[in-house]
Amino acid sequence: MLLSSYAGAADKLAHVTILATGGTIAGSGATSTTTVGYTAATVGVERLIAAVPELAKVADVKGEQVFQIASENMSNEHWLKLAKRVNALLAQPDVDGIVITHGTDTLEETAYFLDLTVKSKKPVVLVGAMRPGTALSADGPINLYNAVLLAASQEAIGKGVLVAMNDQIHAARDVTKTNTSTPDSFKTPELGMLGYIQGNKPYFYHVSSRKNTADTEFDISQLDTLPQVDIVYGYANVNPVALNALVASGAKGIIHAGVGDGSLANSVKTGLVAARKQGVLIVRSSRVGQGIVARNGEANDDELDFVASDTLNPQKARILLMLALTKSSDSKQIQRMFYTY
C-alpha cells in the first residue's frame, strides 16, 4: 500500500522516480534576469534533484534522464518510449509514483498521451517551468517539489495523469498552456482545475469523469509507430492546399481545427469529404479553445461520416485519434472513444 509522504506525517517515504525529458525546467539563461530567449534542456536530472534538497523530506527520489530536448521536438516515437518506460517502472513494487519533467510547449499533449496509455492507477505527474532555473524568479524548483509531493501522496492514486504547475493540480485531459511566458500559463478553462497544493499537502476538489490510464482500451506495448494524423487549421479565406498535401502525404486521419463550433468552409469541405471517401478519418475540432463541438451541429456528421471532438482541443484530438486508429477504423467506434476519454 502506498504510504503518505507528507513531511513528518509518516515513518516511511514513498518511492518516486523522476523521469527527465528536458525543457525550460532544465534550461539556463545568460543572466539572472533572462526569462525569455534562454536555452532549454541543458541541465541533467541529477542537478535538478540536487537543486531541491527538500525533496528528501517528502519522498525517496531517484532520477533518470529519458530525453534531453526542448518539448517542441517531442515526437510520437518519444511518446511511445516514454509510455513504455513509465509502465515498466510502475509495474515494479518499489515504485510508488512517477514525476516527468517536461518542456511546457507540448506538456499537455504528452500528459494526455500518457493518460490514455499508462496501465496503472499509481500517480503520474508532469511538471515544467515557465522560467529557467537561472532566473531570479525561477518557478521550476517549487513546481518540482510540488510534483514529487503529489506523486508520493495517496490522494493522487487513481486520479489519472496529473499536471502540477503554479501550486495547482490539473487533469491531463483538460489542461492547456494559455500564455507564452507567464508562470500562471497552465489553466483548465471552464471545466476547472482539480485542486491545489498548499502547506505540503494536495487538496482535491473534483476529478474528471472520463476514463483514463488503467481503464482505457489502448495498449502501446507492442507499438513502434503510430498512425499519421495531422491538423488543418481553419481561418477566413482558407484554401485547401495544406489539407490536400497532408492527405497526399499519407495521413490516416485529419483533425480539422475549425472556426466557431468546428465549422467547415466550402473551400475545404470538398477536400475533407473526398479524403473521407478515401478512408481518411475526419474529426471536427475547434480553434476556439473552449466548449463542446456539437455532433451534427455545424456539419451533418452522420451524413459525412465525420467525428466530433467533444471538448478536446485540436492537439489532444490528434492524440486520441492516433490511438483510436490502432484499435478501429470505424467512425462510430471512434466517436464512442471521443465521448469516453
How would you portray this structure in words?
The protein starts with 14 loop residues before the first strand and ends with a helix. It has helices spanning 45-50, 76-90, 107-117, 140-151, 241-248, 266-277, 301-304, 314-325, 331-340; strands spanning 15-22, 60-69, 97-101, 124-127, 162-165, 168-171, 176-177, 186-187, 195-198, 201-204, 229-233, 253-258, 281-286, 307-308. The strands form 3 sheets. It has an 8-stranded mixed beta sheet. The chain has a 4-stranded parallel beta sheet with strand order 11-12-13-14, with helices on both faces. A two-stranded antiparallel sheet has the order 7-8. Helix 3 runs parallel beside helix 8 (314-325). The protein has 9 helices and 14 strands. Helix content is 26%, strand content 19%. By secondary structure, the protein is an alpha/beta fold. Helix 7 (301-304) links the parallel strand 13 and strand 14 (307-308).
Topology:
Layout: E1 15-22, H1 45-50, E2 60-69, H2 76-90, E3 97-101, H3 107-117, E4 124-127, H4 140-151, E5 162-165, E6 168-171, E7 176-177, E8 186-187, E9 195-198, E10 201-204, E11 229-233, H5 241-248, E12 253-258, H6 266-277, E13 281-286, H7 301-304, E14 307-308, H8 314-325, H9 331-340
Parallel strand pairs: 1-2, 1-3, 3-4, 4-5, 11-12, 12-13, 13-14
Antiparallel strand pairs: 5-6, 6-9, 7-8, 9-10
Helix pairs in contact: 3-8
Average pLDDT works out at 95
**CA distance, first residue to last residue:** 28 Å
State Rg.
20 Å
Shape: globular
Which class of secondary structure composition applies to the elements?
A: alpha/beta
**Continuous helix count:** 9
Sheet having the most strands: 8 strands, mixed
DSSP, total strands: 14
Portion in helices = 25-40%
Uncertain residue ranges: 1-10
Give the helices and strands as they follow along the chain.
EHEHEHEHEEEEEEEHEHEHEHH
